[in-house]
Amino acid sequence: MVPRWKWKGAEAKALAEPVSETVSELQSSFARTEASGFLSTCNVLLLVEVEQAELLDRCCFGRPVVNSEKDKRWVQLSFEEAFFLFCKLNCIKISVHGRSLEDELDLWRSMRSFKPNFAILYKAYSHLRSKNWIVRSGLQYGVDFVVYRHHPSLVHSEYAVLVHSIGENDRLKPWSDVHCSVRLTGSVAKTLLVLYVNGQVNKENMNLPLCLEDYTVEELTIRRWNPELSREDESRT
């Protein structure tokens, strides 16, 4: 799929500011301070400096929360975003019920207690983020995530992502589900990307972040077949 840039010059701006370099800038900025987040049952609220809030926005982590503070900003993070910042980038600290979570094991168990399928979704999220895709919620399109080549202000999202794991859900079992998903994503100019996250993981190991190493991710794109594009050129006959 060809990227659909939102305005003239957006592609040049994206090439001049790679996502990987912005993420490195984010890590350097957060290493000089101690940004702290508060874990709730469905998200993490992060309190940061104004400059850090701008960097989070440039990297597309979280969404700003309106507040009256002048020198501080609140940012709402999904569980996947918060764990990625905490564990992968070592950028933030997180507490729950006034208790600071000292390591990734504490945070992992807390998040899984609130979100049973967290392991599967985080594996998919980190898989895409590691490839420098911008990953956002796909709730408005009926999928798990949507992914962008660069910041959403520059380019439209290219893929609508469904995360599937054997035994976790029954999505895409009947062909009618596949047809509905393909038609919906096609109507908004996106390609359906299914991430199959599978592995031989014991139930006991699910309580440990090390279980992520036992998962594999298989990518499958599904597009609607257009018979008009498959016909031979009648002028040749």
- Report strand order across the widest sheet: 3-4-2-1-5-6
Low-pLDDT ranges: none
Order of helices and strands: HHEEHEEHEEHHEEEHEE
Count every beta strand, where a strand is a DSSP E run of 2 or more residues. 11
What is the end-to-end distance? Answer: 31 Å
Overall 3D form: globular
- Give the mean pLDDT: 89
* Strand residue content: 15-25%
Name the descriptors:
237 residues; alpha+beta; tRNA-intron lyase; tRNA_splic; EC 4.6.1.16; tRNA_intron_Endonuc_N
Question: How does the SSE layout of this entry go?
Answer:
Elements: H1 10-16, H2 19-31, E1 35-39, E2 44-49, H3 50-59, E3 63-65, E4 72-77, H4 79-88, E5 92-96, E6 99-100, H5 104-114, H6 118-129, E7 134-137, E8 145-148, E9 159-164, H7 175-187, E10 191-198, E11 216-222
Parallel strand pairs: 1-5, 9-10
Antiparallel strand pairs: 1-2, 2-4, 3-4, 5-6, 7-8, 8-9, 10-11
Helix pairs in contact: 2-3, 4-5, 4-6
Enzyme class: lyase
InterPro entries: tRNA_endonuc-like_dom_sf, tRNA_intron_Endo_cat-like_sf, tRNA_intron_Endonuc_cat-like, tRNA_intron_Endonuc_N, tRNA_splic
EC number: 4.6.1.16
Write a structural description.
With 237 residues, the chain is an alpha+beta fold. The chain has seven helices and eleven strands. The strands form two sheets. Strands 3-4-2-1-5-6 form a six-stranded mixed sheet. Strands 7-8-9-10-11 form a five-stranded mixed sheet. Helix 4 packs antiparallel against helix 5 (104-114) and helix 4 packs across helix 6. The longest helix has 13 residues, at 19-31. The two termini are 31 Å apart. 32% of the residues are buried. It comes from Camelina sativa (False flax). Belongs to the tRNA-intron endonuclease family. InterPro entries: tRNA_endonuc-like_dom_sf, tRNA_intron_Endo_cat-like_sf, tRNA_intron_Endonuc_cat-like, tRNA_intron_Endonuc_N, tRNA_splic.
